[in-house]
């Protein structure tokens, strides 16, 4: 968050954390529709990415062992959404 804030010092930045309890389906779609940047771990909740604005940026976080996961890459490409994938590093000693 600090890096994002530093990169957009002149622009307002609001970080929205999702509640501990699940939102309703409509609330989830509304939250996605209001986002300019979505940073999220890979998961089924990402079925809502078509609700993102065409100007939004989607950053999907995946563990190193699942870096090949790409179902949301094809969805993002089909709606011309900018998508970045952030993968964790391989744990030391793993082959």
Class computed from helices, strands and strand pairing: alpha/beta
| Shape label | globular
C-alpha end-to-end distance: 32 Å
> Based on DSSP secondary structure assignment, what is the total number of beta strands?
3
Strands of the widest sheet, in order across it, are 1-2-3
- Give me the strand/helix succession: HHEEHE
Q: Which stretches are poorly predicted, pLDDT < 50 over at least 5 residues?
A: none
Overall radius of gyration = 15 Å
User: How much β-strand is present in the residues?
Assistant: 15-25%
The largest sheet, given as strand count, sense and whether it forms a barrel, is:
3 strands, parallel
Please tally the helical runs, counting DSSP H or I stretches of 4 or more residues: 3
What proportion of the residues is helical, as a percent range? Answer: 25-40%
Q: What is the typical, i.e. mean, pLDDT?
A: 77
